[in-house]
Amino acid sequence: MSVIELDGVVKRYTNGDEEIAALDDVDFTVNRGEMVAIVGPSGSGKSTLLNVIGLLDTPTEGTVTLDGRDVTDLGTDGLTEHRRESIGFVFQAYHLLPIFTAVENVQVPSMWDSTVDRKDRAEDLLRRVGLGDRLTHKPNQLSGGQKQRVAIARALVNEPHIILADEPTGNLDQDTGATILDELTRIKNEENVAIAAVTHDTQLTDYADRTVELVDGVRR
Amino acid sequence: MDASRRLPSLVMAWRNLWRNRLRTILAALGIVIGVIAIAGLGITGSALRYGTAQQFSDITNQATVMPGEDAEQRYLTESQVQSIRGVASNATVIPVKQGRVTISSHTGESYASVDQVTKPRELYSAHKGTIPQPFRTGVLINNETAAYLNVTIGDLIIVGDQSYKVRAIISDGGIGYRDSRVVVSPPALSKQGYSSVMIIAEDGDAAQYLANATKDHFNTEGEVVRTSSYGGLNQRVGSLFSTLNLVLLGIGSISLVVAGVSILNVMLMSTIERRSEIGVLRAVGVRRKDVLRMILAEATLLGVIGGAVGAVLSAGIGALLYDTLYSDPLLVFRWASARYLIVGFCFGAFASVLSGIYPAWKAANKRPVEAIRS
């Protein structure tokens, strides 16, 4: 079953008088338990695609369907709600909050929701990514690989249906990158989530079930 | 984490402020100074007003009745004095007779203005000796006259054609006191009637009331008597100080505006620095209003902490001021002064929150896509 489905998505930017199509009639879908790598040269529109999939950006034309529901025309707050409930994010630069411990960072997506307490789940997730002994460490006390694993735990805390990863191994060396990709693969299977990852890294495409290539905003 | 479960915005705000301690302290210092400016100047104004009111309270309870323009004689008659006693039955009424006679001692002689009263203790203060009450016989003289006649307490001087013993040297006027050179006991002056009648009431309002009542009694057709009193002085002094305080508060609030602008600047800078963090918060599903709350909580914390420190320091400065002026530091907690601590605190907190609104709104509405692009 597809978690997210893009149908004929066009994204245009105006740059002065010039109009640039970052995405031009792109169809895209990803299913639960599937890892899709999105590759392409710089400026090919892969980040724009990831933003549209992640409900961080809205398309100029076309529709976006999340869990069978059309979310194309939702407002800012509606999109925020869906991101929190259904989507997990992993960034190249980890983007952990330096003021919080590992376990607090994992809880951030649910922190403002007073109806749930995700502390136990956060600790459990950190143990599962091998950071059981780093629960109360601050990000500056963690290595790059450890930070990215905290970020993966954060992405999973609200039991999302899809994880979006933007160059998840981009700041890591080969070996650490491999452990992160192992982690993502394991989680994909255990949690039955979809994973869409934008990358330059050929290592990542080896782990992916499918690779989508973009050139000049068009799928190849 | 329990606290952050309940108030995540506040906890985040606190930690973010703590993260940039120096900047936080400097920003709060602006508010501290602003609050001290407002509260300090307000307290200074109220301290000055307090002292002035204390000083004036002695004269404001006096009223003087004198013959008016339409009076038949240039003096107040015995029966008019009786009428005044009737009107001011609750107050002390002291008729004053005034005349120019020769005064002399062994060494000097002078033609001087002499006052004759029955109850001098109400009108004069003794510089040396004691003022007798009732004043049956004797004379009170001021320093200048004593020096001129070369006499002191116990000596005899001749007033008119009678000799009197000097009972006391009186102070020269001063607030609340009559200024006379020679005060003699009755019946030294043979002259008819009284030049004026002093009414000494309980307080300023009563004196004003009795002055008006006396005028109402006599001045049915023309100005038979005129009165002077300081009853309105309290109010006039009060409104003068209210104006002064407003000016001082205005000056003080300028520094709070400056502090507010500096907080605005600090908050803007800190939200710009953290835009990727804020973008990540928004990306992972933190709502705009929660980001808004978080930034506003930072500004509020700055204002509340700065305001509280400022109020405490202002109280200290005020206590020092009251101690210096009136030897009682606790006077700073009179409501008239203490309210400026509250006013200063509220203004400080308000200025800070106000300054946080724009940065908070801006941070909350930043599109996460732009914010997290690294």
UniProtKB/TrEMBL annotation, chain A:
It holds the Pfam family ABC_tran. Residues 4-220 form the ABC transporter domain. GO terms for cellular component: membrane protein complex; plasma membrane. GO terms for molecular function: ATP binding; ATP hydrolysis activity; transmembrane transporter activity. SUPFAM superfamilies: P-loop containing nucleoside triphosphate hydrolases. It comes from the Archaea. Keywords: ATP-binding, Nucleotide-binding, Transport. The keyword Cell cycle does not apply. The keyword Endoplasmic reticulum does not apply. InterPro entries: AAA+_ATPase, ABC_transporter-like_ATP-bd, ABC_transporter-like_CS, ABC_transpr_LolD-like, MacB-like_ATP-bd, P-loop_NTPase. This is ABC-type transport system ATP-binding protein. It comes from Haloferax mucosum ATCC BAA-1512.
